[in-house]
From TrEMBL:
Keyword Hydrolase: yes
Keyword presence, Hydrolase: yes
Domain Dienelactone hydrolase: 52-274
Name under which the protein is recorded: Dienelactone hydrolase family protein
Lineage: Bacteria, Pseudomonadati, Bacteroidota, Flavobacteriia, Flavobacteriales
Organism encoding this protein: Pelagihabitans pacificus
Domain of life: Bacteria
Single annotated GO MF: hydrolase activity
Pfam families named among the record's database cross-references: DLH
UniProt keyword annotations, A-Z: Hydrolase
């Protein structure tokens, strides 16, 4: 009888160990299967007058529809940086479109050209809205996207674009602007529906204290759901790793700041989680 108990005990231990190993193996396989498998594709879309070249990306390992996010480039134009940010959003489980606001994938190699290109867009808000709307339509019609869950983020010029579009009453649930001007062609008003995050550098000379005061005053007047963050010691373009070299090349106050970059990305993730829920992409 004693021997039988010992045999039974050994069998039970072996069975439990085997079961645990199987469960651990299954969990590991599930973890591997959940690793992002990005599907990125260049696309062409257009308004009545302008053809644009964008980039759409999503994680093939995410089942079902998920929120869609527009990503608007810096004043340099639609480049690899804006696509990298779109990829980062896809890794979080969203579908992202890197937008082309200049048309034909046009990029600037010099600040003078960048200023001209961005100025042409911001001085013609009707054309800017048409280009933004065209990109949004592409995003909403993507089969991976939940059409009623749309956000937009932008960097520098792109931040001003997404804030302006939100103030124009676009169908956006959330917008986030990084190192962005806040003296906008369309200032905050009752048409604003989106939650708003502005993440700027406290040492950014392109963003004046007066413009910040005007912006926050306007947001407060309509009781907007917003957060304005100013990161200490962060200069303009603090999220771009190429900013420091570009600043030195063109004698501009541009500088990458790893701490502010990381903190602002975490702030964005909190905004998206608050807006769509942590499991919105599952």
């Amino acid at each position: 009888m004693g021997k039988l108990k010992v045999v039974c005990s050994i069998f039970l231990v072996a069975f439990l160990a085997c079961k645990q190993n199987t469960q651990e193996k299954k969990a590991a396989e599930e973890t591997i299967s959940r690793e992002p498998l990005l599907e990125g594709k260049e696309i062409t879309y257009s308004t009545d007058s302008t053809e644009m070249k964008g980039y759409v990306v999503y994680d093939k390992n995410v089942d079902g529809k998920r929120p869609g996010i527009l990503v608007v480039h810096e004043w340099w134009g639609h480049n690899e940086y804006v696509r990298e940010r779109a990829d980062m959003l896809a890794e979080l489980g969203y579908t992202a479109i890197a937008v082309d606001m200049y048309g034909n994938g046009k990029q600037a190699a010099h600040p003078e050209d960048a200023g001209k290109f961005s100025g042409m867009v911001m001085s013609n808000i009707e054309a800017a809205q048409a280009r933004f709307d065209a990109a949004m339509e592409v995003l909403k019609n993507n089969p991976t996207v939940a059409m009623d869950q749309i956000a937009a983020i932008g960097y520098c010029f792109g931040g001003s674009v997404v804030l302006t579009m939100a103030n124009a009453g676009k169908d956006l649930d959330a917008v986030a602007a990084f190192h962005s001007g806040v003296q906008l062609p369309i200032m905050p008003n009752e048409k604003l529906k989106a939650k708003v995050l502005v993440a700027n550098g406290a040492a950014d000379p392109f963003v004046s204290p007066e413009s910040v005061a005007n912006f926050t005053r306007a947001m407060d007047s309509i009781q907007a759901d917003y957060k304005y963050i100013a990161y200490e010691n962060a200069k303009h373009a603090y999220t771009s790793k190429e900013a420091t070299a570009l600043g030195e090349k063109f004698n501009l106050p541009l500088e990458y700041n790893a701490e502010a970059d990381e903190k602002s990305w975490e702030a964005l993730k909190r905004l998206l989680n608050d807006t769509f829920g942590e499991n919105a992409s599952e």
